[in-house]
Amino acid sequence: MNDVRDVAQQWPVVATQDLHRDDWVMALRRDTIRRPGTEETFNRLVLEHPGAALVVALDAEGRVLCLKQYRHPAGMRFVELPAGLLDADGEEPLEVAQRELREEASFAAATWRPLTTAYSSPGIIGERIHYFFATDLSPVDRGDFVLEHEEADMELLWVPFEELHAAVLAGDVTDGPLLIAVLMVRALGLA
Known about the structure:
By secondary structure, the chain is of the alpha+beta class. It has three helices and ten strands, in the order E-E-E-E-E-E-E-H-E-E-E-H-H.
């Protein structure tokens, strides 16, 4: 039987150079690494990222709370799910998912279930996204959170799960975290 598991491993870093670092939570650096057991060294760019949490919020009618948001690097307005960075010290992924559901969509959920955790693109970024499934939704106030920049232009929409799943399979929605979340919900039989 094959051992089909990811394994933590750290190759030696010979040198590191910051290419961009400021007061934001992300930074770009160049690492020179050495392949174990050899003298071979090579460079890799690393985008430092604190991680994120995402929520599939399903209402009593079987609809998923989705957002449409512009994403400048891709030049696209994506259908997405509420999500946010793990950028507050000591904040757990579930707390981030709950916060983002409240701040981005003005909803809270009484029932939460973890779906999975996955790396976005481990060849360049260490971002891990923690996926959650939430039900028993109720509207809430955003508190003192103010939508700014792209978030100020977000559109909230309720999409029946079956319609969203069909859009994933048809390639009509292409946000990677949304794809993972929807496929996990289907695989686990939650909707």
